[in-house]
Amino acid sequence: MEETISLKELLETLKKRLVMIILITMTAGLVSGIVSYFFLTPIYQASTQILVNQAKSDQAVYNYNEVQTNLQLINTYNVIIKSPAILDKVSDELKLDMTAAELNEKVTVGSEKDSQVVNISVQDADAALAASIANKTADVFQTEIVKIMNVDNVSVLAKATVLENQSPIKPQPLLNVAIAIVVGLMAGVGLAFLLEYFDNTVKNEQDIEKILGLPILGVIATIDNQKMDELKKRKAVGGRSSGRGETIGI
């Protein structure tokens, strides 16, 4: 026999487990907020831009083939910027206690499609250090590319700067809390339905009818102890009153 679940049953399940769902949701949001505000280290980002372009010639004419050549070189340049040949020199000149591999994890290089501008971004817990690494990486690359590829077609467009009261790019506590609340709510709802699914106890006459597949002919009402005590007291009082009436009659 196929079982069907009505919307009313779903809502009743959620209502029955509402306290648990709210507790799980609030706990997830609270834990996320505490971790984001007090345990995660703020990370700052600084970026610099370099332009890949051939040196100006006597012909002040736009050369399409020259631009395409520069665009094809950018992918190669992106790899070279993050290579030990560049990052080792950056670490030495800034006197950083970092290897090229450690520095590589902090540096991100990218460019927009069909753009000759390359962005060098650095993330670090120290905003000033991030800006210094970004600027030094651009300077070292501009110098070393002449030796590596025997071309001089790189110029620095914009240097990385440190803004006053600069905000970290991560963590984002409000976003983390919002995500945790949504995840906690989903987990609470899922757990509520899971507990309901594994709960095979019989609670009412509808459960009996559903399990046995037979119609219910009658229901024996239950009376709690307080009501039973009240009934006994009433019977006792009634019995005494009846006894007095018989004595008076005699």
From TrEMBL:
Q: Which UniProt keywords apply?
A: Cell membrane, Membrane, Transmembrane, Transmembrane helix
Q: What is this protein called?
A: Wzz/FepE/Etk N-terminal domain-containing protein
The record's Pfam families line, in alphabetical order, gives: GNVR, Wzz
Segments traversing the membrane: 18-40, 174-195
What topology in the membrane does the UniProt record assign?
Multi-pass membrane protein
Q: Which domain of life is it from?
A: Bacteria
Q: Report the residue ranges that make up the Tyrosine-protein kinase G-rich domain in this protein.
A: 142-194
**Residue ranges of domain Polysaccharide chain length determinant N-terminal in the record:** 3-94
As for family, the record states: Belongs to the CpsC/CapA family.
Q: Where found in the cell?
A: Cell membrane
